[in-house]
Amino acid sequence: MDARNLLRFFFLSFTLAIALLLTWLHFPSLPDKAELLDCSTNSGSCTFNFNKRFRLKNPTLIKKPTDLPRRRHESDKPRHPLDPLTVQEVNKVRAILSAHPLFKSTYSINSLVLEEPDKTLVRAWKRGDPLLPRKASVIARVNGVVHLLTVDLTSNQVTRHETAPFSGYPITTVEDMVGALDAPLTNAQFNRTITERGVDMNDVACLPISPGWYGEAEENRRVIKVQCYSRQGTVNFYMRPIEGLTVLVDLDTKQVLSISDKGRNIPIPDGVDTDYRYSVQKLNGVLNLVNPISIEQPKGPSFTIDGHYVKWANWEFHLKPDPRAGAIISQVKVRDPETSELRDVMYKGFVSELFVPYMDPTEGWYFKTYMDAGEYGFGLQAMSLDPLNDCPRNAYYVDAVFASADGTPYVRPNMLCVFESYAGDIAWRHAECPLTDLQVTEVRPKVTLVVRMAAAVANYDYIVDWEFQTDGLIRSKVGLSGILMVKGSKYENMNQAPNEYLYGTLLSENVVGVIHDHYITYRLDMDIDGSDNSFVKVDIKKQETAAGESPRKSYLKAVKNVAKTEKDAQIRLQLYNPSEFHVINPSKKTRVGNSVGYKVVPGPQAASLMDPEDPPQKRGAFTDNQIWVTPYNRSEQWAGGLFVYQSRGDDTLQVWSDRDRPIENKDIVVWYTAGFHHIPCQEDYPIMPTVSSSFDLKPVNFFEKNPILRLPPNFETDLPVCKPPDSA
Amino acid sequence: MDARNLLRFFFLSFTLAIALLLTWLHFPSLPDKAELLDCSTNSGSCTFNFNKRFRLKNPTLIKKPTDLPRRRHESDKPRHPLDPLTVQEVNKVRAILSAHPLFKSTYSINSLVLEEPDKTLVRAWKRGDPLLPRKASVIARVNGVVHLLTVDLTSNQVTRHETAPFSGYPITTVEDMVGALDAPLTNAQFNRTITERGVDMNDVACLPISPGWYGEAEENRRVIKVQCYSRQGTVNFYMRPIEGLTVLVDLDTKQVLSISDKGRNIPIPDGVDTDYRYSVQKLNGVLNLVNPISIEQPKGPSFTIDGHYVKWANWEFHLKPDPRAGAIISQVKVRDPETSELRDVMYKGFVSELFVPYMDPTEGWYFKTYMDAGEYGFGLQAMSLDPLNDCPRNAYYVDAVFASADGTPYVRPNMLCVFESYAGDIAWRHAECPLTDLQVTEVRPKVTLVVRMAAAVANYDYIVDWEFQTDGLIRSKVGLSGILMVKGSKYENMNQAPNEYLYGTLLSENVVGVIHDHYITYRLDMDIDGSDNSFVKVDIKKQETAAGESPRKSYLKAVKNVAKTEKDAQIRLQLYNPSEFHVINPSKKTRVGNSVGYKVVPGPQAASLMDPEDPPQKRGAFTDNQIWVTPYNRSEQWAGGLFVYQSRGDDTLQVWSDRDRPIENKDIVVWYTAGFHHIPCQEDYPIMPTVSSSFDLKPVNFFEKNPILRLPPNFETDLPVCKPPDSA
After folding, report:
1. Is the confidence at residue B187, as pLDDT, over 80?
2. For residue B469, what are the domain limits?
3. What confidence score (pLDDT) does residue B23 get?
4. Nearest-angstrom CA–CA distance, A292 and A285
């Protein structure tokens, strides 16, 4: 690997895949090693002892050790219609494609994933039934043309073959990125300006930045913008921008199209004390603020994972890694405590798209309006989680199998984790007055199940959690951490620029954190007790009383409005015109006659304020509302469109929704966008403390009564007996 | 105790106090008992071993066991100027008052608390200095007149004596409540209607309900409204309302003034399966969903509590129980990792008032517009916490010393808890691409310190948390649980009332959960590096680009507006007109020239929509804005006024703020109101899963950089070695 191109493999590389496959049998076998320890008496050391760790509560489901989750995947078999393609299946797809005439030319595979069977078939499938026919959905570029193919793994045939109907290009591949980062290095002007700025070429680190789309001049050509940093003295090169230097590269020809070189008067920030690694702090003095703390489960976890199927407490769902969405949860069902019946809540939930526009219109910055899922692959950027820190000690990890640009499968170990969380919170409580004869204090602790992924899209890190509560609530949370995208500045102190607008905050000498927004759009295919549902806006309105009606002048009234068509369900939240947002099953009522439902409960919010005609906002028009509801359409999965890279916004959620199709008593999909305005502050430098937002899916007259009324409290006699490690 | 008056002592009773004091030495001494166990090797059993449990990190602060937190309070001495009055001090105040001519008449003491020394004196006081002179602030009613007194514990004199300048009455006493609940029982009409409704008088449970204020007819007379329930067959009598029966009682004469008896056609709901106690579920089948789970700290907690002074990680603050506010945190300081200096953040923070208007204008409901702190005492209603369930196993508990209506001190054990929480969350992280030579994945776990109180104001339970993060953020969270206030209904199914508005949701046969709001108003006396601060609204505005300036049409710009006077800081949140809300110290800048500050970050919100001229909204006018800022005024502590019971709204935060006093570069106080609209759903029946909201106080250019950059990650070798209890 060329030492001058430290980031040429910035994104996912198939080399990792090959290396992993080749060295498969040479890795120390962690499960085997850990099995020497006895989990039942020594929970702390059992991270890899899956057999005992994943205690199966229902004896009929007990698997032989060979059936239990393992770290080797070459012989994995699919067990559920939604299971992702296995290593063997990806290899088979690759073999089928190799035999296809199209793939005789130079090609790149931009996406190779399971083509999910029809929803009706999946919903009808039961464990024990034969697996539904397996198919792969492939997006490939051949000679500059984007092809959509279906590969049937039963007939070993390509059964569908279309060319792309929309503007934009598919997710970039690692080869694209390597090429983009290589291109400037052979350009004399680039080398000259780097050297003249006093940066050693060995210290140059570059990022490939999606260009957005700004009009016809940028059409019919796949381009990328390359900006560079000095990594001298710190791994945190993001804090040392070579400001004003932007190289436009043709992604297909690998040619440098133009160089914008305007920041020579801007010093490169010195990067002192920006390295965030523990190994470096150890030398400078670690801040040891708190004693070790751990979540411990003396009798083991309460969940089981059979393949990709998770069972925990009163929940069951399918969980799979996806290269574009990250984590996908499907067929989410909750058990009704009254009837013991498993009831449908959501057919599929995932992060459909992200939109991160920066708020600086100047030449080196205006185009930074990332759409991370469709441009880079949100799942592809989710690196292996760090055990004990990304997830607590009691976590179980799920590996991903992805395909590289030539169709070779590779494994991303520990891409997702699943764990039970207990923060000391309360599920419900009531205390009576102690001096009545009702000496009642009843409190139930709150334990949840968390599914986590952490995607590092270049500098930024997104922590995406799905959290399941026993009371039927699902919380979807996204945390932002990682490293700011900063701008070099000639200023060392704000007193040098009393009247100049910097587009952000001066974070350190010569470092400006540029203001930006984050939008994370979730696709939530709700199925409340079946597919045909309605969306009900329950408006909370001031009602004035009539003269003489009451000593009160006013009260709040709940008024239900069933959305007939999509435009009825384009929701902008208003604090002084509030509503609840219910998804109900109009055909099913509770015993006392309320429609069963779930409500979408927004969390803290920010809304996009950009001009709707601004090109980035047209592409990111799925953020125009916080909530949308569309009729189920298999092809409408990605809020920013199937092809997002350089897209013009002709295939977004906004376009679909504006068709205003009927949505009453239909299979409907809810879209929720979480937003953040981020004005950076010095505390975000050189690495950001996590900031979070969340929203809830909450049962509303779904259950006949509180579903966790019969939950027991904690008892001291159930809790573990623990010792510090040094006394063990 | 008369068996027919089961709830006559519904609120805090001095009998408990006396009983506790008398039986003091006869209680099993839990600390002594637990000290037999060795905490250092057996953390799980050491709940009461305070000595070893509260490991003191700084050797100079190590106390002898007798100085450490104990469960006996009769010899407690104050150690800090803000420490609450001790048992001895309350007794002394009582003795001084007994000798005062005013108290020769029949009197009731409605409030007896420390009169905090002047802020300047407290701020100047250092550990080791002589304690500042101790004074008590007393509110007493004598012959129908409210008196405000200051009792000097040095001179043993009453040094201030005024009568109340405002409308309204002080917090009700338990004697008030007992009298109110007794009154109807001697009324023949009341007895007759109860019997005629088929309820055995032995099964009647009544609630004393504050009447609000609705015009002149209700002035100059202290009244209360009594409504009753059948407790036959369930401890959850709240679910069995005797609808339509309201008794108006004069609180001073104990006379029944009138009886409204209109609900005879409404059946009393049967209350079947509404009992939520574990003991009852045990018979019906417990829902055992998850295995035991616990937060364990092998090396003990990381905090110390010296008297009422808490030190944890980089935080120090004073914590005290208060009968009206619940928990008060004072002198909150955070240590700067760069300079090791302890820096002021907040002088005082607490829940100042609550406002809970119900949305039913009919005769039995219109007046239900509770202001729980000023009417009932939010702290007085905070019963002892349930160890292991209200707080996790690793919690430390703080007792309260309160005064009863005759001035006798009593102890509320375990009123507050303090614990470290770890939910598996991430303080910060970044992962680099593994195939660069930057093989970096650095993640830091997030551990917080939680201070908790749970107040059960009759049916509703409020869980109030202050959560401290090592990154300088303070999260203030309120959780709502407990039991709904429900209305009896003649309907058993919604199909019986297709077009009738029920003012809420039919939760079960004959039970309607009435729609209501909750507002919790916090008083936050921010002191950012000293008292003189400014409030800055950082508006986030759309800025259009000029023609030819950029391919972008628009971007968001941050525009700072310093609030000059109070009206500049009356904030109604708007999603499409957003701002950040900074409290800055205009005299102190960071190295690069930003003003040091903290920002108030609102959480999920609801705003009051009632008519501003509606009597409850006039009294609750402190909820008219989500944020207010006032100049520091020692007398402006209670957002709804010093005297809230039957107040007319002439002493609220809204009245103070409308004076529009200067607030720039002054000692300022921020007021934040968290709001909830609650449309009940069947899941809230018969007891509600907790619903939460929160807001954050977040450093913004307060630190030079991320203050937890140098935090270490978790290591397996630091974590505990645990066994299930049965194998111990």
Report:
1. yes
2. 303-718
3. 34
4. 18
Q: What is the pLDDT of residues B437-476, one digit of tens each?
A: 678 999 999 999 999 999 999 999 999 999 999 999 999 9
DSSP lists the bridge partners of residue A304 as A311
Residue B69 domain flag: yes
Whether residues B187 and B50 fall in one domain? no
- Shortest CB distance from A386 goes to which of B47, B302, B443? B443
Domain boundary, last residue among B122, B142, B163: B163
pLDDT for B15: 40
Round the average pLDDT of chain B to a whole number and report it.
Answer: 90
Quick one: which H or E segment has residue A320? strand A315-322
**Tokens read off for B236:** 């959850």
Together in a domain, B356 and B238 = no
Q: Is B535 a residue whose pLDDT tops 90?
A: yes
pLDDT of B220 reads 86
Range B566-585 average pLDDT = 98
B82 shares a domain with B224: no
Catalytic residue flag (residue A460) = yes
HEC assignment per residue over A637-685:
CCCCCCCCECCCCCCCHHHHHCCCCECCCEEEEEEEEEEEEECCCHHHC
Mutant choice from B7, B43, B238, B287 vs A, greatest count of A C-beta within 10 A: B287
Q: Does a structural domain hold residue A245?
A: no
Q: Which residue has the tokens 């070790």?
A: A292
A650 is catalytic: no
Instruction: Show the low-confidence residues of chain A (pLDDT under 70).
Output: 1-71, 434-437, 727-728
Structure confidence at residue B289 (pLDDT): 95
> How much is the pLDDT for B436?
59
- pLDDT for B125-134, tens place per residue? 999 999 999 9
CA distance A402 to chain B (A): 16
- Which residues on B lie below 8 Å from A602 (Cβ)? 604
Question: Does residue A193 form part of some domain?
Answer: no
- Interchain contact, A720 vs B292, CB within 8 Å: yes
- Domain of B412, CATH number, reads 2.70.98.20
Of B214, B295, B699, the CB nearest to A683: B699
**Checking phi first, is residue A144 left (phi over 0); if not, alpha (psi -120 to 50) or beta?**
left
Measured between CA atoms, the residue of chain A closest to residue B709 is A276
Tokens of B268: 């009393």
Q: How many residues does chain B have?
A: 728
Domain final residue pick, A142, A163, A192: A142
